[in-house]
Design a protein that fits this description.
By secondary structure, this protein is mainly alpha-helical. The chain folds into two domains: 9-180, Up-down Bundle (Growth Hormone, Chain: A), CATH 1.20.1250; 198-393, MFS general substrate transporter like domains (Growth Hormone, Chain: A), CATH 1.20.1250. Helix content is 84%, strand content 0%. It has 13 helices and no strands. It has helices at residues 8-37, 46-74, 76-92, 99-125, 130-159, 161-182, 196-202, 206-235, 240-266, 272-292, 296-323, 330-358, 361-392. Helix 5 packs antiparallel against helix 6, helix 8 (206-235) runs antiparallel to helix 11 (296-323) and helix 10 runs antiparallel to helix 13 (361-392). The longest helix has 32 residues, at 361-392.
Length: 393
């Protein structure tokens, strides 16, 4: 998933960041899947389960920009280490009676090291290799999303839910030790004085808004896929594991595609605007297939389209943000962009669920397909100027 022969000096310090990203994704989906599978035994109603699961995302939406800005002030490394230690502490203190508090603590801790890790990747990779290393970082996170649910459910079934918490805590502590030893200290870049007006201007520029919009659309579509692919499989009277297999295939596809897309971007063979249009077109096509011709073939065809879309958009959007952001604002920008991703992750399923309730599920999927096409067109049109400027530079 990463090739240390290409640039050994750069790749080695980034490896602990890959482990940190994997730990975050593994923990988020591992615990979420177990809570869903064990909700009856844990005494959770459907409403209670939804509330507990949402606490993680709520913490991320509120805190990611805060911790991103903090990493600009004191450096990324202490924020990453502190977040990983807090992540382990939240898991070690978790108990069935304190699930909500543990889930909130887990989300708050991930809010610290996630944007700081993205900012560290941007600073270590250098402008010429942004796509490549964001692709690898994203691939490791996708792998965590794949392995979290099956390993989490297996550990809980064999040894109880506390064994999952312990395993995740050990992962976090191992990542802490590796980051402490292997990640170079990245001193804060000299800060320029800025006002609230400057902040508003920076976060409303095309170079920030369009990549963040594309990432929000990406996570929104992924949220719909993770929630509704199993539902569609059940409606098609397929084997109960078919939906889970489709979700795993989606994440594996994203894992495989991200490093390739990142390398193509860095080599100048794939522009951000072109990749954005292709990725969103694939998503729109997959959603339309599911809406108009639902069957086992279109289910897995759409799954591959969604995975390729995520694998294409994620490294391109992060690389574009990193390339257009001054170093003294890198953490704040990454935190704000990741907040946009979390809002998309929550908003996509809510939109489709609401439209499916008052209309039909096919109509809801077609609506999301239309929004995907619009986002792709906006990315292609708006980011071409940035691509042309980068090429001339």
């Amino acid at each position: 998933m990463f090739d240390v022969t290409a640039s050994n000096d750069t790749a080695r310090p980034l490896i602990p960041l890959y482990l940190a990203g994997f730990t975050s994704a593994f923990g988020a989906h591992g615990v979420a899947s177990v809570l869903g599978a064990e909700s009856a035994d844990l005494g959770l109603t459907l409403l209670g389960l939804g509330a507990v699961l949402a606490l993680y995302d709520l913490a991320e939406v509120v805190l990611k920009p805060v911790f991103g800005a903090l990493s600009d002030r004191i450096g990324a490394k202490p924020v990453i280490i502190g977040g990983l230690i807090a992540f382990a502490a939240a898991l070690l203190s978790a108990s069935p009676a304190m699930l909500a508090l543990a889930r909130l603590g887990q989300g708050a801790a991930a809010s610290a090291f996630s944007p700081a890790s993205s900012a560290a990747v941007a600073r270590l990779a250098g402008k010429e290799r942004l796509g490549r290393y964001f692709g690898r970082y994203g691939a490791w996170k996708s792998l965590g999303y794949v392995l979290g649910p099956p390993i989490g459910i297996a550990l809980t079934g064999w040894f109880g839910i506390q064994s999952l918490y312990l395993t995740l805590a050990l992962f976090a502590l191992a990542a802490t030790a590796w980051v402490s030893r292997g990640l170079p200290t990245l001193p804060p870049a000299p800060r320029q004085r800025s006002t609230l007006k400057d902040l508003m201007r920076q976060t409303t520029t095309r170079g920030f808004l369009l990549p963040t919009l594309l990432m929000a659309m990406t996570t929104g579509i992924l949220g719909v896929a993770v929630g509704f692919l199993p539902l569609l499989a059940v409606r098609l009277e397929l084997h109960p594991l078919t939906g889970a297999a489709a979700v795993a295939l989606l994440a594996l596809t994203s894992t495989a595609v991200q490093p390739v897309i990142g390398r193509l971007h860095d080599e100048g063979r794939l522009r951000t605007s072109t990749g954005s249009a292709i990725g969103m077109a694939l998503a729109a096509g997959g959603l339309a297939l599911l809406a108009l011709w639902p069957n086992v073939v279109t289910l897995f065809t759409a799954t591959l389209a969604f995975g390729t879309m995520a694998g294409t958009l994620t490294p391109l959007a992060f690389a574009h943000l990193a390339a257009t952001t001054p170093e003294d604002r890198m953490g704040r920008t990454m935190g704000s962009a990741e907040m946009g991703r979390e809002l998309g992750d929550a908003g996509g399923p809510l939109l489709v669920g609401a439209l499916a309730t008052v209309w039909t599920l096919p109509a809801a999927l077609l609506t999301l397909a239309g929004l995907s096409a619009v986002a792709g067109a906006a990315g292609w049109s708006g980011l071409r100027r940035d691509d042309d400027g980068a090429r001339r530079a």
